[in-house]
Amino acid sequence: MPKDHGIGASSKRREDVRFLTGRGRYTDDINLPGQAHACFVRSQVAHGRLNGVNTADAAAMPGVIRIFTAADFEGVGGLPCGWQVTDRHGAPMQEPGHPVLATGKVRHVGDPIALVVAETYDQARDAAEAVVVDIEELEPVLDMKAALADGAPKVHDDLTSNLCYDWGFVEENREAVNKAFEAAHHVTTLDLVNQRLIPNAMEPRVAIGDYNFATDDSTLYTTSQNPHVIRLLMGAFVLGIPEHKLRVVAPDVGGGFGSKIFHYAEEAAVTFAARQLRRPVKWTCTRSESFITDAQGRDHVTKIELALDAEGHFQALRTETYANMGAYLSTFAPSIPTWLHGTLMAGNYKTPLIYVNVKAVFTNTVPVDAYRGAGRPEATFQLERVIDKAAREIGMDPVELRRKNFITQFPYATPVAVEYDTGDYNATMDKLLEIADVAGFEARLAESKARGKLRGLGVNCYIEACGIAPSHLVGQLGARAGLYESATVRVNATGGLVVMTGSHSHGQGHETTFAQVVADMIGLPENMVEIVHGDTANTPMGMGTYGSRSLAVGGSAMVKATNKIIAKARKIAAHLMEASPDDIELKDGRFTVAGTDKSVAWGDVTLAAYVPHNYPLEDLEPGLEETAFYDPNNFTYPAGAYACEVEVDPETGRVTVERFAAADDFGNVVNPMIVDGQVHGGIAQGIGQALLESAAYDEYGQLLTGSYMDYAMPRADDVPFYTVDHSCQTPCTHNPLGVKGCGEAGAIGSPPAVVNAVVDALQRAGHTGVTHIDMPLTPSRVWAAMQG
Amino acid sequence: MYAFDFVRPATLDEAVAALGGEEAQALGGGQTLIPALKQRLAAPATLVSLTGLPELRGVCAADDGTLCVGGATTHAVVAAEAAAHYPALAALAGNIGDPAVRNRGTIGGSVANNDPSACYPAAALGSGATIRTNTRDIAADDYFQGMFTTALEPGEIITEIRFPVPEKAAYVKFEQPASRFALVGVFVAKYADGVRVAVTGASEEGVFRWTEAEAALSSDFGAGAVSGLSVEADMMIGDLHGSPEYRAHLVKVLTGRAVIAAG
């Protein structure tokens, strides 16, 4: 019998009432008295020397208040990078400056050059067009391998080359891995591209700077996944505003997928401008602008090799990846192809020797950073593709080959520095084969064939590291931040609770899920718990939401704080009933003296806390409010198995996804309906990457896919009804809820399933030369592959 | 967008007069022009809306058997009202864009714009339609003159498009995955005096007739008639979404499918 409330119940998403009735309050809905409007002058070329910016005519145009150029930002810091990667020789990465407005050079189409502030947006835009920019065009750096060639033009003149770092992991294993390959019975090699994607959150970015000169307080309203992080980065590193004089508010946010983690130039620019002008300054990104300014995702070029013995046991794995950083280092960019990618190369398999090499490269393109999955989709895709290719080469069923190599003993320390606490990969595979009805595939294949269509089945596994992250560990790995989370639980006199969290919800349903957890712990109706997030002024310092961390880390902080509340409330109840706190039991919102019929209600206790007439004031402070910080001991390791069935039109190459099944192990699940939705969205995103999406630049560095006319987002009719299951549950061993995180799984696990299925379809139809097709598998690419 | 004046004349004469003004631009449903204005890619001084002219709206069957569609008739109206007379044309209209596009976009706007990936030019050319303007009648064969290029003179207004109704016809569109415009679209129409095959989306020169297929289908109206033919890739569009060879291949595949769909 499914639960109808609390942990394990599919409670309806309370936030949807406002989202679905147009009552959400997004940043662009905020308009402050006296607000001015901003428009950026942006580079229209990918690479050029910025010889001058003439604002004279523009400044005289109607409504123009002020035009800021890089000169105005002298003395202002650049945008900081939050992670320093050390290369395989022990040297720190090359870390170029990232000025708020382009200085000396422009480095990608969209690079901001000047900020025009005017009374209206249209006036600002008119004036922005009138700003005269003198740029001497330079040869753009676009292809990563060419960028590393001797004599290649440099994106940053002050660096020695376009190489950010050359990372080896685990460097000490390099020789042993090479030797294993020399001795291997069989080696499977695959060259592939994990193409660049554009995040395309439904809500474009918005930033409003506000400044009260009377109190010297600055406020930034922004579309962020982590307002505290933005406050710290912008306050401390860019504008020099102490945190107690800077408030960052991220109200309702319409999707992020990673792209709203980062600190962007526009945030600092409007905050700075507001202080200079003593007026609120608002900037709303147009959709066209978001294509060329939101940090983009993926963009890896990889060669992966898998060594196997005669029985199909994996002996060693070796990869060489070129990872595109774009023109500047976005906030967490260096960590994505390294610590969020290399550490996952073991996958679900007990490969004893692994060596991962990643060369991060600067190019004249939009910066690349975390995008749903962030490094883990890239790891999963190459691993699960090379395993499929290996299975075909050695003539073994791909599921069998995977099972043969599954990790089955936990905890398991991988050769790439992480320790999986729990998992049961055979269980999720068994569940997958059942829910995907793999047994019925042959019949469906015959039916497709009768209609003249090719059909293929793709199966793969995935594992991810979520619940980011143990602070001491990431500190050793180069993170310039801790990755704990925080919660304050405030109980009101009449018993209702307000939970203030450093996590940030931008679609995930935290307001529902978190309330379920806290209400369940006390035994109260969920509607007695309110979740507050998104404002540094009323939430404790927290690191925000990304990396499927909010329930595992933020939820754990909430559990800790709630336990403190319960401990204190128990003491109050004991006083009221003249019993020992040790004898007090809490159930269904009532405190009872064990073994008696003496009890007090939750509300009696909370009222006593705030009206302490009969209260142990000598031992206990009045009030009922507690804060907790939680820093995880380990990552969590959600894992699972996915299956995709496709049809391919042999005449046109068009691929349709006919069936998709996902068997995930997320550990314990708080709200199964929300988890289903997270997986659905992730799979849609993964199918989008597999079949449709690609950020393509031309030879001049102009984005060819700069609008929805050419950038293909998945739509409802591009995806099938999914069969998802999360009944295989091996709870996380090191967080109080036993949860692992579900936000990225779908996007990580699904692209290889789709590509495996298409290759399978073509192989079955006799196109035996087709061992791989690079994503997106557009009709023209699939057709070309069939032509040989 | 830049500032502009907007007029919505009630008569054709007023519209012609308005379009004679400096930097005046006709506006149909705005499905191409409005996005261009928003991107500041166009800067007309005056927009002259043609949607207020009653004589430009509606679908009717003429005595000579042709189907007449007013220039300002929306795709949604054509989808609904042409269905009984010319099902292939109605189906084409019903699959342009999405409901919002179909309820604003007009046939005259589409044919005047002559986007190389638009659907209507294939129907007009494939049907041997007549483009009637405020000054003259233009045969479709003379009207379409290359990508975004037509026989229209400045200020000339499409008032009506007259479609001879074929015995059989079908339009098959293969969608570009992002825009869902035609990557290639083929309109096949069988008339008593022969078959017409018009192709959109594929060519650098805009909509064109595949005369080789027309000849083959005129003597044998079956998918097999085109299976031995091939299309030259020379003048085909090559872009992110498909190579010239791929588009040439699709022309043949879709022509065969259109013949089958026509029945």
UniProtKB/TrEMBL annotation, chain A:
<dbReference type="InterPro" id="IPR046867">
    <property type="entry name" value="AldOxase/xan_DH_MoCoBD2"/>
</dbReference>
<dbReference type="Pfam" id="PF20256">
    <property type="entry name" value="MoCoBD_2"/>
</dbReference>
<dbReference type="InterPro" id="IPR008274">
    <property type="entry name" value="AldOxase/xan_DH_MoCoBD1"/>
</dbReference>
<feature type="domain" description="Aldehyde oxidase/xanthine dehydrogenase a/b hammerhead">
    <location>
        <begin position="21"/>
        <end position="139"/>
    </location>
</feature>
<dbReference type="Pfam" id="PF02738">
    <property type="entry name" value="MoCoBD_1"/>
</dbReference>
<dbReference type="InterPro" id="IPR037165">
    <property type="entry name" value="AldOxase/xan_DH_Mopterin-bd_sf"/>
</dbReference>
<dbReference type="InterPro" id="IPR036856">
    <property type="entry name" value="Ald_Oxase/Xan_DH_a/b_sf"/>
</dbReference>
<dbReference type="GO" id="GO:0016491">
    <property type="term" value="F:oxidoreductase activity"/>
</dbReference>
<protein>
    <submittedName>
        <fullName>Xanthine dehydrogenase molybdenum binding subunit apoprotein</fullName>
    </submittedName>
</protein>
<keyword id="KW-0560">Oxidoreductase</keyword>
<dbReference type="GO" id="GO:0005506">
    <property type="term" value="F:iron ion binding"/>
</dbReference>
<dbReference type="Pfam" id="PF01315">
    <property type="entry name" value="Ald_Xan_dh_C"/>
</dbReference>
<dbReference type="InterPro" id="IPR016208">
    <property type="entry name" value="Ald_Oxase/xanthine_DH-like"/>
</dbReference>
<dbReference type="InterPro" id="IPR000674">
    <property type="entry name" value="Ald_Oxase/Xan_DH_a/b"/>
</dbReference>
<keyword id="KW-0500">Molybdenum</keyword>
Automatic annotation (TrEMBL), chain B:
<dbReference type="InterPro" id="IPR002346">
    <property type="entry name" value="Mopterin_DH_FAD-bd"/>
</dbReference>
<protein>
    <submittedName>
        <fullName>Carbon-monoxide dehydrogenase medium subunit</fullName>
    </submittedName>
</protein>
<dbReference type="InterPro" id="IPR016166">
    <property type="entry name" value="FAD-bd_PCMH"/>
</dbReference>
<keyword id="KW-0560">Oxidoreductase</keyword>
<dbReference type="Pfam" id="PF00941">
    <property type="entry name" value="FAD_binding_5"/>
</dbReference>
<feature type="domain" description="FAD-binding PCMH-type">
    <location>
        <begin position="1"/>
        <end position="168"/>
    </location>
</feature>
<dbReference type="InterPro" id="IPR016167">
    <property type="entry name" value="FAD-bd_PCMH_sub1"/>
</dbReference>
<dbReference type="InterPro" id="IPR036683">
    <property type="entry name" value="CO_DH_flav_C_dom_sf"/>
</dbReference>
<dbReference type="GO" id="GO:0071949">
    <property type="term" value="F:FAD binding"/>
</dbReference>
<dbReference type="GO" id="GO:0016491">
    <property type="term" value="F:oxidoreductase activity"/>
</dbReference>
<dbReference type="InterPro" id="IPR051312">
    <property type="entry name" value="Diverse_Substr_Oxidored"/>
</dbReference>
<dbReference type="InterPro" id="IPR005107">
    <property type="entry name" value="CO_DH_flav_C"/>
</dbReference>
<keyword id="KW-0274">FAD</keyword>
<dbReference type="InterPro" id="IPR016169">
    <property type="entry name" value="FAD-bd_PCMH_sub2"/>
</dbReference>
<dbReference type="InterPro" id="IPR036318">
    <property type="entry name" value="FAD-bd_PCMH-like_sf"/>
</dbReference>
<keyword id="KW-0285">Flavoprotein</keyword>
